């Protein structure tokens, strides 16, 4: 099978020819027009039916589903199972739809099976803003996140990727240098929020009972192990409020050191620190708030 063309003053030549079952263009200067007799590109498809805006349809071997490439209302679309003409029209009402729509921005849309209105899930606007309209932006690989490397960093910068967010609860407990301090299990649940490497903790824990406690007082159960940094940059101090102690103390300090899941709680005497586990009794309340780094 051959498609022929004539050129004034020249011999008849083949434009397309069927070769080994394939139709090939023999004339490298030729353009192909579908729906137009004046194509200005190598291939041009002109939509002539306002009710059928798909210029290209690709079907599977069973004709059950199709992929469409079309243009309508100043929008270009690539979609499965439906066509677009200002609104979507389902081809097979039993098949859900995913669509890429190029208009005043790039729209990623999905439709439920049989739906005739696309739901925009994400938009990349012409100005560059990205909007996730429904659902969550899921970081699928640990250690990946939002990269802020386009900013001007401080001289000591070590990372510019925000790679972690988490919130939840943790269970507080107490230890003493000697003896025991047992929490009231009705008042030992604390809260935390982690943003990047910063962990904020807060809550109230109440002592249930004690048995001759003395020495270093610690609160246990921090949700993450604290980090290790250069020199003493890994030290953090948290705020404490204590109610119902035995004896008199001056001020209370809470410290998280390197590689720790505990908060060391000490009394500040005005010039130095002193251990204070012996001040704990049943029903002592400890309220904390502060942050440390991992």
Summary of the model, kept short:
By secondary structure, the chain is mainly β. The protein has strands at 2-5, 13-19, 22-25, 32-34, 43-45, 54-59, 66-72, 75-80, 82-84, 88-90, 97-102, 105-111, 119-125, 130-132, 146-147, 161-162, 165-171, 173-175, 178-183, 189-195, 198-214, 217-220, 236-243, 251-256, 262-268, 273-274, 285-293.
What series of H and E elements makes up the topology? Answer: EEEEEEEEEEEEEEEEEEEEEEEEEEE
Helix-strand category: mainly beta
**Whole-number average pLDDT?**
86
User: What Rg do the Cα atoms give?
Assistant: 35 Å
The total strand number stands at: 27
Query: Shape, please?
Result: elongated
Number of distinct helices? 0
Domains (count): 3
What is the CATH class designation of the largest domain?
A: Mainly Beta
Specify the helix fraction band. Answer: under 10%
Main beta-sheet strand count, sense and barrel state: 11 strands, antiparallel
Instruction: Tell me the β content.
Output: over 45%
Give a verbal description of the structure.
The protein is mainly beta and 294 residues long. It has three domains: 1-30, no CATH class; 37-132, no CATH class; 165-293, Adenovirus Type 5 Fiber Protein (Receptor Binding Domain) (Sandwich), CATH 2.60.90. It has no helices and 27 strands. The chain has strands at residues 2-5, 13-19, 22-25, 32-34, 43-45, 54-59, 66-72, 75-80, 82-84, 88-90, 97-102, 105-111, 119-125, 130-132, 146-147, 161-162, 165-171, 173-175, 178-183, 189-195, 198-214, 217-220, 236-243, 251-256, 262-268, 273-274, 285-293. The strands form six sheets. Strands 17, 18, 19, 20, 21, 22, 23, 24, 25, 26 and 27 form an eleven-stranded antiparallel beta sheet that branches. β11 (97-102) and β12 (105-111) form a beta hairpin. The model has no long low-confidence stretch (mean pLDDT 86).
